[in-house]
Amino acid sequence: MYSYPPLVDIGYSLPYVAVFCMYLCAYLISGSKTWKQYFSYSHAVFFVLLVYFIFVGFRGYICTDWYNYYPMFRETPCLLDFDEFVSYSNSVFTEKGYLFYISLFKVFCNDYVVFQAFSVLIDLVLIHLCIKRYSPN
C-alpha cells in the first residue's frame, strides 16, 4: 500500500521561507547606505523579479494548478495544423483565446514547463511596466 507523505511538514515551507529571506535581504540592502554604492534600486528590482520568475515560472507540477492545464496543453494541436485546431477549439468548452495562445506557443516549443515559465515572464513584464508607469518611484 502506498503511503502519502505527511501534509504537515516543515520541509514544505522551507522554499517559501528562503524566498522571503531573499526578498528581505534585497529590501535591507537596497535601503542600506553602505551597500548603495554597490547595488542600486534597479538591481534590487531585477533581483526580486528574477527570484519570482524562477520560483513561480519553473514550479512545474506543484499543487493542483497543473491538473487542469497540463491535459489541455497536451491535447491542443499545434497552430500549423489549422483545420485540426479549429475542430478541437469548437469541440471543447474553453476560451478560444487561451487555446490560440497554447497552439501558437506549440509552434515553437512543446514543453509545458517552458510554456508555464513563458506565461509567467509575460505576466511579470506587464506588471513591472504598469507599476513603473503608475508608481511615483
From TrEMBL:
Alphabetical keyword list: Membrane, Transmembrane, Transmembrane helix
Aminoacyl-tRNA synthetase recorded as keyword: no
Database matches in InterPro entries: EpsG-like
Keyword Membrane listed: yes
Membrane-crossing segments per the record: 12-29, 41-62, 112-131
Superkingdom of origin: Bacteria
Protein name (Swiss-Prot/TrEMBL): EpsG family protein
